[in-house]
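seq as requested:
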Amino acid sequence: MERVLIIEDDELIAELERDYLEANGYETDLAFDGITGEKKAKTEKYDAILLDVMLLGKTGFDVCRELRRSLRLPIIMVTAKKEDIDKIRGLGLGADDYLIKPFSPTELVARVKSHIYIHNLLSSAEKEDEQQETEITYRNLTILPKSRRVYLDKKEVILVNKGFELLLFLAENPNLVFSKDTLFDRVWGMDSLGDAATVTVHINRLRDKMGKIDAENQFIETVWGAGYRFRID
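struct tokens:
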């Protein structure tokens, strides 16, 4: 049974949402403040999240921003605000949809059903692509170039575009040393704005994200006075 997390500080509204979703075959879980809701979303398995904007402890915008760092499931924001700027902000932070109070309960169920269906469809397509594409694997690190995903110890490492491209370039050229200038030209392009210092920032972010999962395996090595290399034994 598909599970929906409802993060809503108004208990009457939360219970109304719960009743309609459960009547339509969904299992639900409730959280009445932002901090609790964020913790539940990170530690339990859900298929979608209904997220109120005005919450105690932590706003829905802040919760959405944090959850998008690691979760790919549908997030539907619910709010009494009608201003376009709030909709744009929520969607810009990674929300998939926006509902304005008061809303029709049947519309709520339809939106949840639609987003879960689309998410499952895309996830299935991604899995098929992953099975068909050639993996780059070193020890406990797996890089999927086509689907642009990285796994370390079977846990996904969420990387921004240039971070992924930098890791992929190094991994495709193991044990070779590249200067910061060369990496900037090869990954960012010679006509890009910025400078080679950007490479150092992204290298540090890569190490930090991967180190949180596996601190022992430092794949990217600094070669002092020369640059960086992706070291394999």
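The chain has two domains: 3-129, 136-230.
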